[in-house]
Amino acid sequence: MANNYTQFSEVLEELTEEEMAWLQATLEDQDDEERYRFLQGNPEVDFDNMGDCLGFDYELGKQEKRLYITGEEDGEPLHVATLVQQFLQKFRPTDCWWMTWAATCSKMRVGEFSGGAIFVTANEIQWLEASNWAWEQKKAHDARQAQDQPG
Length: 151
What we know:
The protein is α+β, with helices and mostly antiparallel strands and 151 residues long.
Protein backbone atom coordinates (compact mmCIF):
# COMPACT_ATOMS: atom_id res chain seq x y z
CA MET A 1 0.00 0.00 0.00
CA ALA A 2 1.20 3.50 -0.77
CA ASN A 3 0.46 6.81 0.89
CA ASN A 4 -0.18 9.99 -1.05
CA TYR A 5 0.72 13.40 0.34
CA THR A 6 -0.06 17.00 -0.48
CA GLN A 7 2.70 19.11 1.04
CA PHE A 8 3.41 22.82 1.25
CA SER A 9 5.04 25.43 3.42
CA GLU A 10 4.36 29.14 3.11
CA VAL A 11 4.05 32.31 5.15
CA LEU A 12 1.85 35.39 5.36
CA GLU A 13 4.23 38.09 6.52
CA GLU A 14 4.41 41.56 8.06
CA LEU A 15 1.15 41.28 9.95
CA THR A 16 -0.24 44.16 11.95
CA GLU A 17 -1.74 43.65 15.39
CA GLU A 18 -5.23 43.96 13.89
CA GLU A 19 -4.43 41.36 11.22
CA MET A 20 -2.96 39.01 13.82
CA ALA A 21 -6.08 39.36 15.99
CA TRP A 22 -8.34 38.61 13.02
CA LEU A 23 -6.33 35.53 12.03
CA GLN A 24 -6.35 34.26 15.61
CA ALA A 25 -10.10 34.79 15.92
CA THR A 26 -10.72 33.17 12.54
CA LEU A 27 -8.55 30.13 13.21
CA GLU A 28 -8.69 29.61 16.97
CA ASP A 29 -11.37 31.45 18.90
CA GLN A 30 -14.44 29.63 17.64
CA ASP A 31 -16.71 27.04 19.19
CA ASP A 32 -17.36 23.77 17.37
CA GLU A 33 -20.37 25.05 15.43
CA GLU A 34 -18.46 28.02 14.02
CA ARG A 35 -15.12 26.27 13.53
CA TYR A 36 -13.68 27.01 10.11
CA ARG A 37 -16.70 29.08 9.16
CA PHE A 38 -14.46 31.07 6.80
CA LEU A 39 -14.46 28.04 4.46
CA GLN A 40 -18.22 28.23 3.97
CA GLY A 41 -17.76 31.29 1.79
CA ASN A 42 -16.08 29.26 -0.96
CA PRO A 43 -18.53 27.06 -2.93
CA GLU A 44 -15.66 24.77 -4.02
CA VAL A 45 -14.99 23.66 -0.43
CA ASP A 46 -16.79 20.45 0.53
CA PHE A 47 -17.51 21.76 4.02
CA ASP A 48 -19.97 19.02 4.96
CA ASN A 49 -17.43 16.23 4.37
CA MET A 50 -14.27 17.76 5.77
CA GLY A 51 -14.97 16.69 9.35
CA ASP A 52 -12.72 18.29 11.93
CA CYS A 53 -9.81 18.73 9.52
CA LEU A 54 -8.75 22.25 8.66
CA GLY A 55 -6.58 21.08 5.75
CA PHE A 56 -3.42 22.78 6.95
CA ASP A 57 -1.37 23.40 10.05
CA TYR A 58 -0.37 26.86 11.14
CA GLU A 59 1.64 28.79 13.66
CA LEU A 60 0.86 32.39 14.45
CA GLY A 61 4.23 33.94 15.21
CA LYS A 62 3.51 36.92 17.41
CA GLN A 63 7.14 38.03 17.62
CA GLU A 64 7.77 37.55 13.90
CA LYS A 65 4.34 38.99 13.03
CA ARG A 66 3.59 36.20 10.54
CA LEU A 67 1.33 33.26 9.88
CA TYR A 68 3.33 30.15 9.01
CA ILE A 69 1.19 27.69 6.99
CA THR A 70 2.12 24.06 6.32
CA GLY A 71 0.63 20.91 4.92
CA GLU A 72 2.68 17.87 5.80
CA GLU A 73 0.49 15.00 4.61
CA ASP A 74 -3.05 15.86 3.59
CA GLY A 75 -2.74 19.56 2.94
CA GLU A 76 -5.64 21.31 1.26
CA PRO A 77 -4.46 24.29 -0.83
CA LEU A 78 -8.04 25.46 -1.45
CA HIS A 79 -8.59 25.92 2.29
CA VAL A 80 -5.42 28.01 2.56
CA ALA A 81 -6.41 30.08 -0.48
CA THR A 82 -9.88 30.70 0.98
CA LEU A 83 -8.41 31.98 4.25
CA VAL A 84 -5.87 34.18 2.49
CA GLN A 85 -8.47 35.60 0.10
CA GLN A 86 -10.69 36.64 2.99
CA PHE A 87 -7.65 38.14 4.70
CA LEU A 88 -6.79 40.13 1.55
CA GLN A 89 -10.39 41.28 1.12
CA LYS A 90 -10.43 42.63 4.68
CA PHE A 91 -6.93 44.06 5.04
CA ARG A 92 -4.98 44.21 1.77
CA PRO A 93 -7.37 44.47 -1.17
CA THR A 94 -4.66 45.44 -3.67
CA ASP A 95 -2.15 42.74 -2.65
CA CYS A 96 -1.64 39.23 -3.95
CA TRP A 97 -0.29 36.01 -2.45
CA TRP A 98 0.79 32.68 -3.92
CA MET A 99 1.73 29.21 -2.84
CA THR A 100 3.07 26.08 -4.50
CA TRP A 101 2.60 22.50 -3.37
CA ALA A 102 3.89 19.03 -4.07
CA ALA A 103 1.71 15.97 -4.55
CA THR A 104 3.89 12.98 -3.72
CA CYS A 105 3.60 9.27 -3.06
CA SER A 106 5.48 6.97 -0.68
CA LYS A 107 6.05 4.48 -3.53
CA MET A 108 7.38 5.12 -7.02
CA ARG A 109 3.99 4.70 -8.71
CA VAL A 110 3.52 6.05 -12.20
CA GLY A 111 1.09 8.96 -12.29
CA GLU A 112 1.08 9.52 -8.54
CA PHE A 113 3.32 12.61 -8.52
CA SER A 114 2.28 16.13 -9.36
CA GLY A 115 2.13 19.55 -7.81
CA GLY A 116 0.64 22.90 -8.40
CA ALA A 117 0.40 26.56 -7.66
CA ILE A 118 -2.30 28.86 -6.45
CA PHE A 119 -2.45 32.63 -6.91
CA VAL A 120 -4.77 34.63 -4.66
CA THR A 121 -6.09 38.18 -4.81
CA ALA A 122 -8.99 39.77 -2.99
CA ASN A 123 -11.17 39.06 -6.03
CA GLU A 124 -9.89 35.81 -7.47
CA ILE A 125 -8.27 32.46 -6.79
CA GLN A 126 -6.39 30.95 -9.74
CA TRP A 127 -5.06 27.37 -9.89
CA LEU A 128 -2.52 25.46 -11.86
CA GLU A 129 -2.32 21.74 -11.16
CA ALA A 130 0.67 20.17 -12.95
CA SER A 131 -0.85 16.87 -14.06
CA ASN A 132 -4.00 18.60 -15.36
CA TRP A 133 -1.86 21.11 -17.26
CA ALA A 134 0.19 18.28 -18.82
CA TRP A 135 -2.99 16.41 -19.78
CA GLU A 136 -4.39 19.54 -21.46
CA GLN A 137 -1.14 19.92 -23.41
CA LYS A 138 -1.40 16.30 -24.59
CA LYS A 139 -5.01 16.80 -25.72
CA ALA A 140 -4.04 19.96 -27.62
CA HIS A 141 -1.11 18.14 -29.23
CA ASP A 142 -3.35 15.23 -30.28
CA ALA A 143 -5.89 17.65 -31.77
CA ARG A 144 -3.16 19.40 -33.79
CA GLN A 145 -1.87 16.05 -35.02
CA ALA A 146 -5.36 14.99 -36.09
CA GLN A 147 -5.79 18.26 -38.04
CA ASP A 148 -2.48 17.75 -39.82
CA GLN A 149 -3.36 14.24 -41.00
CA PRO A 150 -4.22 14.04 -44.69
CA GLY A 151 -7.90 13.36 -45.13
